[in-house]
Amino acid sequence: MTQDELFNRLSARLPQLERAASPIRDYLTLRLKSTDQILPAAKTLKELGYDYLEMISATDWLGPVNPNGYIRNPNPNVFLPEGATPQNVPGATPGVNYRPVFDMLWLFGNIKERTRVFLRLELPRSNPTTSSLYGLFKSADWQEREIYDLMGVRFEGHPNLTKILTPDFLQGHPLRKDYVHVKDRYDE
Amino acid sequence: MSNDTALAAQEPKTLKTDTLFVNLGPQHPSTHGVLRVGLTIDGEMITKAVPDIGYLHRGTQKLAEVRGYHHCVVLTDRWDYVSAMPNNLVFCLAAEKLMGLKVPPRADALRVVMCELNRLASHLLFFGTYGIDIGAFTPFLYAFREREMILDLFEMVCGARLTYNYIRLGGVMVDVTPEWLAKTKEFLDYFKPRLDEYDTLLSFNPIFMARTQEVGLISAEKAVNWGLSGPNLRGSGVNYDVRKNDPYSGYEHYDFDVPLGKTGSCWDRYYCRVQEMRQSVRILEQALAMLPHGEVSATGVAKVPKPPSGESYAHVEGSRGDLGIFLVSDGQASPYRMHVKAPSFLNLAILQEILVGNKVSDVIAILGSVDIVLGEVDR
What we know:
Helix content of chain A: 10-25%
Strand content of chain A: 15-25%
Distance between the termini of chain B: 56 Å
CATH class of chain B: Mainly Alpha
Shape of chain A: globular
Largest sheet of chain A: 5 strands, mixed
Order of helices and strands of chain A: HEEHEEEEHE
CATH superfamily of chain B: Cytochrome-c3 Hydrogenase, chain B
Number of helices of chain A: 3
Oligomer: heterodimer
Strand content of chain B: 5-15%
Largest sheet of chain B: 3 strands, antiparallel
Largest interface: A-B, 50 and 51 residues
Structural class of chain B: mainly alpha
Shape of chain B: globular
Structural class of chain A: alpha/beta
Number of strands of chain B: 8
CATH topology of chain B: Cytochrome-c3 Hydrogenase, chain B
Number of helices of chain B: 16
Number of domains of chain B: 1
Strand order of the largest sheet of chain B: 1-2-3
Radius of gyration of chain A: 19 Å
Number of strands of chain A: 7
Order of helices and strands of chain B: HEEEHHHHHEEHHHHHHEEEHHHH
């Protein structure tokens, strides 16, 4: 099934969704306009056979990553002399739309029809809160906890939104682009 | 009769039962790595199970944001270190989509060969260690005898036994030699009869079947809802295999079946993997028979690739399930964001539900049947 056919079929039931301006390569990508749309959209998708929530992800679009977010020199080059500035630390690319948002991403799969669809939603960095899909998909449980732990997005309605990967004493959310590592007793 | 027993006999009403909290792991051979499960038990029954992960978290998703694309392939080896070839492959597929690279047919075929050999090695490790979990030590020795041969083949082609870094952007590291091909064919001829031997050793052993056929049942609906993938999902009878569902690297040209289980018990998950080994052998034989000639790497792969800004998603059927990579580029030499959708991470989450109501001795049987690798869970 082509992306257009799939979009026409889905938009009959989900008219609030529009195609994303910058889609994921080779996959149908739909954009939600506000936070309160994700739960009804997920519910409708589940009714349509998209009952396999494959992935939840998020991108921080603030700008290039802060090198101070790493414990040691983030990009060691053994051929450089001692004390030289690290190379290849990414900078900003002109023309890329850096903005203070978290771009959420959900991937729903339909196992029988062999199709999958991405949903996107922009959350402001000042208040990154969205609805939890735990009630519909149990696979959201740990994936939402991971995004909360690493990215700091809060999922309302999640029964146990706690850290999962990073240690308890770690402050902040490491995958945020402005994350700065605070020295702790395990450093050097 | 001791004093305590006499007291208990006198006042039976004052005796209380209480639940007990038990730590399973993180340093426990049956957890296959550094997994801690907090078990609340009432006598022999589990009333609550809380898997605790993160002991092996190395932050590869963050590290990728300052490394070049070629360096990121090295990072991928460290997720599922038991089967690193599919990890290499999935990152390369996602990055190649961003860069618009076209992989030559011989490289595609070699990728398939390596991934299937790695699946054999990974499933053999499962077969051996799961026997040990249940209490059968002998199959382990047989499984490792064969696994060693596969690792020798990998060592022969790329110099490493676990962290290969063989599949590179645009193709593979180096072409295989005629001696390697001859040795691989020799291995397959040796390995095929061994599969029947495994069935007599472990699969249809009455004690093994009694221990595994009635525990850890996962219904198809529950498996899909919890996002399981790989043999864990297929053991519940759901026909989902990325090689068929969303083919990559020319898997659509190979003739193979997807083994399915019926009840979703530990034995079904186990036997799915054993049958998958037969299918992997079938794919390997076809791939080696019609290995195309030509280049093994695309031309024009930059030393420091800077793909145009965009987003891509690629997923493969790794040894443990649907392994996906979401990759964002902003035009720099490093990925702007890399998200790893790890199958073990999702396969492990269901433990908190299926362990409840089982006996303590069955915990290891269920844990082993899910076949997790903690390097992939924690990334």
